[in-house]
UniProtKB/TrEMBL annotation:
PANTHER family: GENERAL TRANSCRIPTION FACTOR 3C POLYPEPTIDE 6, TRANSCRIPTION INITIATION FACTOR IIIC TFIIIC , POLYPEPTIDE 6-RELATED. One of its GO terms (biological process) is transcription by RNA polymerase III. It comes from Solanum verrucosum. It holds the Pfam family TFIIIC_sub6. This is Transcription factor TFIIIC triple barrel domain-containing protein. One of its GO terms (cellular component) is transcription factor TFIIIC complex.
Length: 138
């Protein structure tokens, strides 16, 4: 039984996560949430990201320095307090009450650890033309 488990572990591929960084884009470029996109050339030095068939971006990998962790943040339900006893101020004794002074809390969970960040910038027309040109034969 242990042999099968070790064979499965050897055949499993290790996943590598990459953060797509779009912070260097000009303010004029707006990307709609859930816009369709095509990411190609991840195994090249400069992957291409086409968004909604309109915006073309070129990427460059940056190695992370130290540990880069990715977290997921979600809203947590409000904390409910149970009244301990009858009170003149509480007309609904025995029912849960919400604390109006309490701020909204968030729950944070670790998603993964990163080794690379893929920074994107606008792809210039001259860069696409150069990539399409075939070398001249002498």
């Amino acid at each position: 039984m242990m042999e099968n488990q070790s064979l499965c572990d050897d055949n499993m591929e290790e996943a590598e996560y990459v953060l797509l960084d779009l912070d260097d884009l000009p303010c004029e470029v707006y990307i709609f949430p859930n816009a369709p996109y095509v990411l190609s050339g991840l195994d090249t030095l400069n992957p291409i990201l086409a968004i909604d068939g309109k915006v073309k971006l070129i990427g460059q990998y940056d190695e992370t320095i130290g540990t880069c962790l990715v977290f997921y943040e979600s809203d947590t339900p409000p904390v409910v307090h149970e009244e301990a006893g009858a009170s003149e101020a509480n007309l609904c004794s025995g029912r849960p009450t919400l604390d109006p002074k309490q701020t909204k809390s968030k729950q944070v969970k670790l998603v993964t650890q990163l080794q690379k960040i893929l920074k994107f910038r606008l792809l210039q027309n001259s860069e696409t033309e150069g990539a399409r040109e075939k070398p001249k034969e002498d």
